[in-house]
Amino acid sequence: MAKRTIVSLPGDGIGKNVLEETIRVLDAAGFDAEYVEGDIGWEFWRSEGNPLPQRTIDLLEKHKVALFGAITSKPKDAAFEELAPGLQEKGLVYSSPIVGLRQHFGLDICLRPCKSYIGNPLNFVKRGVGDVIDEPAVDVAIFRQNTEGLYGGVEWSDPPEKVYDALMTHPKFVKNFGDTPKEEISVSTRIFTKKATERILRAAFDHAKKYGYKSVTVCEKPNVIRETSGMMYKMAQQIQKEEYPNIELWNTNIDAQMMWLTKNPETYGVIVAGNMFGDIVSDGFAGLIGGLGFACSAQFNPDSGVAVFEPTHGSAPKYADYEISIVNPIAMIESACMMLDFINENGIAAKIRKAVAEVISEGKVRTYDMMKMSGRADVVEKGAASTTQMADAVIAKL
Ligand code: IPM
Ligand code: MN
Questions:
Q1: What is the pLDDT of residue 201?
Q2: Phi, psi of 12 (to 5 degrees)
Q3: Which of 14, 56, 263, 311 is 20 to 30 A from 116, alpha carbon to alpha carbon?
Q4: 128: pLDDT confidence band, cut at 50, 70 and 90?
Q5: Does residue 395 sit in the same domain as residue 337?
Q6: DSSP letters along 310-367, please?
Q7: 389 phi, psi to nearest 5 deg
Q8: pLDDT grade for 2, boundaries at 50, 70 and 90
Q9: Residue 310 alpha carbon, nearest atom of ligand 1
Q10: Among 295, 319, 320, which Cα is nearest to 309's?
Q11: CA distance 336 to 9
């Protein structure tokens, strides 16, 4: 069979380091692929006023599957100031290229698994019955609707007349905001469609069925956000009743869920949420399994097969200047395993996951985060593994 082509999108900062090391691991595991690099991120915003150039979109259109490192996003003013001379007069507005990719390709399904590794010193612990120290085994799969809701981009400050007039047709708007001058109003919309809501719910239930999770929890806020959250929960009830009677449907509010994170995280299986609450709850669970060094994700469009796999951490710009890269590559390696699963290379994925698990449980090679050090340039001197050494350790197990 022809070699598989994977688009590599290193992006900014330490995204480059973790991606490079991950490709070494993939090679060592026997994944036969060619990597073509796509331009994305801050560098391209500064130099060409577009962090997601069309050529990168074309590349992904052609090859479908990408590994993504990380990107840097800065606030509006900083984004403007850093633009190359000649671009500043063009009225360009920075927007996150990863959100851009999600929108452009309709990558509406985002899966973020959070599963604790045995022996990870960063695993969440709590005091249990009789004051024993309890280390609950977390194994959740979070499904985040990835294109709609608060990320739909439909928002205004000082909204146009027509929008304002439409808002004024709502009695609650008149009552609560009717006295506020239009110029003093900012509006961000939270739009849910039935189609996308059904797709994310089905993806969650299918996953629960396929991997034997006993429950699907809708994590929203239907008691207050009645229309959108309410619609999602109602649709979940119907889908569960008609198609997945053997899987329990639970309903939690996002705020309560964040509290239960530290009370009974082991209770949850599959969690499904809209875009923003999915963003929040996935960071929450990631914290229980070691934080950003361990949080991986997949985002895909099941119809077109376009898929982007990325660690959920950022680009950590200040670490990018260190002579030796110190960041933990496991989240990126795990994201690559999700990619392998997606393209039916499950055998190689399992091999890599086993190697990672062995390195962690052995505990001889640990990056600075796993040693609870703060991320300074001298951590390797002090005994922490570098990004490369961690990848080497995984490769040695392969
Ligand atoms: C994530 C990140 C992104 C998001 C940012 C970088 C735009 O937090 O992937 O979770 O908010 O979705
Ligand atoms: Mn996030």
A1: 98
A2: -110, 165
A3: 14
A4: confident
A5: yes
A6: EESS---HHHHTSSS--S--HHHHHHHHHHHHHTT-HHHHHHHHHHHHHHHHH-SS-B
A7: -65, -35
A8: low
A9: 9
A10: 295
A11: 12
- Of all ligands present, the nearest one to the C-alpha of 284 is 2
- Give the ligand 1 atom nearest the CA of 99: 7
* Mean pLDDT, rounded, of the chain: 96
Q: What DSSP line would sit under 52-71, residue for residue? A: S-HHHHHHHHHH-EEEEEE-
Last residue of a domain, one of 138, 170, 188: 188
> In terms of domains, do 144 and 271 share one?
yes
Q: Is the pLDDT of residue 314 over 90?
A: no
Q: Domain span at residue 385? A: 1-108+304-398
Instruction: Ligand 1: list residues with CB < 6 Å.
Output: 73, 96, 98-99, 279, 312
- The radius of gyration computed from the CA coordinates of the chain, to the nearest angstrom, equals 22
The verdict on residue 40 lying in a domain is: yes
Ligand 1 mean position to 135 CA, how many Å? 28
| Ligand closest to CA 74 | 1
301 close to 108: Cβ distance less than 8 angstroms: yes
Smallest CA separation from ligand 1 atom 2, residue: 312
Contact assessment for residue 343 and residue 65, using Cβ atoms and an 8 Å cutoff: yes
What percent helix, strand, coil does the chain show, rounded to 5?
Answer: 45, 20, 35
What is the CATH number for 233?
Answer: 3.40.718.10
Strands 155-157 and 186-188: antiparallel
Count the domains in the chain. Answer: 3
What average pLDDT does range 129-141 have in this prediction? Answer: 95
